[in-house]
TrEMBL record:
GO molecular function, one term: protein serine/threonine kinase activity
InterPro entries, per database record: Anti-sigma-factor_SerPK, HATPase_C_sf, HATPase_dom
Superkingdom per UniProt: Bacteria
Pfam family, one: HATPase_c
Keywords assigned by UniProt, alphabetized: ATP-binding, Kinase, Nucleotide-binding, Serine/threonine-protein kinase, Transferase
Coiled coil residues, start to end: none
PANTHER family hit by this protein: ANTI-SIGMA-F FACTOR RSBW (PTHR35526:SF3), ANTI-SIGMA-F FACTOR RSBW-RELATED (PTHR35526)
Domain Histidine kinase/HSP90-like ATPase positions: 54-154
Keyword Hydrolase: no
Name of the protein this chain belongs to: ATP-binding protein
């Protein structure tokens, strides 16, 4: 996956912030029921990892916004949930991918109030604010992949 010019994908490979995925699960995002399943799976992962209630809510909210965007704007897709481990704590990385038309103007889409649908236009930017790390890829020809990570205190 090649990151676009204006966004950097977090490097988790070396240094004091190096992290390794210790558990990975993939969920389809094709129906309204899949959206609920994704929320429940992310909530369970945050609880099992020891996130506090506020951080659980942040992560679940970000997941909900991203999978709903993939469902509505991308025609469905996948959610990958990865539990990460590093020397000073653990984290949860969510990667949502779809094969839709892509996002023509990523910067505009990240601004509050921007929407190409019936929503309020806070989803993508809100997900970015709720998480510690955010990366988005919209290659020419369509499709969108958003990866977000939240770390536990540790």
């Amino acid at each position: 996956m090649t990151p676009p010019d204006h966004r950097a994908t977090p490097d988790l490979g070396t240094g004091p912030r190096a992290a390794a995925a210790v558990h990975r699960a993939e969920f389809p995002v094709r129906t309204e029921e899949d959206l609920l399943e994704a929320r429940h799976a992310v909530r369970a992962a945050t609880q099992e990892m020891g996130f506090g209630l506020v951080d659980q809510t942040r992560v679940v909210t970000a997941a909900s916004e991203l999978v709903r965007n993939a469902y509505i704007h991308g025609g469905g897709g996948t959610l990958v949930v990865e539990r990460l481990s590093r020397p000073k704590g653990s984290g949860l990385r969510l990667t949502v991918s779809d094969s839709g038309p892509g996002i023509p103007d990523v910067e505009a889409a990240l601004a509050d109030g921007f929407s190409t649908g019936a929503g309020l236009g806070h989803g993508l930017g809100g997900a970015r604010r709720l998480m510690h790390e955010f990366a988005i890829e919209c290659p020419p020809g369509g499709g969108t992949t958003v990866s977000v990570t939240r770390w536990t205190a540790g």
